[in-house]
């Protein structure tokens, strides 16, 4: 596996739309591919709402991380919020999610964020195990994670 991780570009909008449909199915919804125009506008329009990092094995996209900035975090600090971390089924348990998490933290450091925050479903033991293996402790109440920069 030749894994690379890079920011998505406008040319990736169709692939991202397909993966959003896969994510919906993964969480038990009906598989429906969002409108590519909507994805383009959200990510590459005049006011982008998120950054998407794509994991590729060669040219094939095998995973994604979608992040956005939150402000204020603590005082006037900014945090990076991980909204979605997804790895296609045939690439799970091969280190892709871990490498995406490293890239998310690098993105946060580069942007001057003080931390990365995210949530996980209690019914997703693989995600909970990944975050535990990364050494991040859940907050009480919800499973909510925060790692300091």
From TrEMBL:
* Pfam families membership: Acetyltransf_1 (PF00583)
Acyltransferase: is it a keyword of this entry?
yes
Which Gene3D superfamilies has this protein been placed in? 3.40.630.30
Entry keyword set: Acyltransferase, Transferase
Reading the lineage from the top rank, the first entry is Bacteria
Question: Which residues does the UniProt record annotate as the domain N-acetyltransferase?
Answer: 3-149
* InterPro entries the record matches: Acyl_CoA_acyltransferase, Bact_Acetyltransf, GNAT_dom
Q: Does the keyword Transferase apply?
A: yes
Return the protein name: N-acetyltransferase family protein
Naturally occurring in which organism (per UniProt): Streptacidiphilus cavernicola
């Amino acid at each position: 596996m030749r894994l690379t991780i890079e920011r998505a570009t406008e040319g990736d909008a169709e692939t991202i739309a397909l993966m959003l449909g896969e994510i919906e199915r993964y969480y038990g919804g009906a598989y429906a591919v969002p409108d590519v125009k909507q994805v383009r506008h959200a990510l590459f329009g005049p006011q982008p709402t998120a950054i998407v990092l794509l994991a590729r094995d060669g040219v094939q996209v095998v995973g994604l991380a979608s992040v956005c900035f939150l402000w204020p975090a603590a005082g006037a600090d900014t945090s990076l919020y991980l909204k979605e971390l997804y790895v296609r089924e045939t690439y799970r348990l091969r280190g892709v999610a871990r490498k995406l998490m490293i890239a998310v933290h690098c993105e946060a450091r580069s942007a001057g964020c003080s931390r990365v925050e995210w949530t996980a479903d209690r019914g997703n033991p693989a995600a909970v195990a990944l975050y535990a293996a990364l050494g991040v402790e859940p907050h009480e109440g919800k499973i909510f994670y925060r790692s300091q920069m």
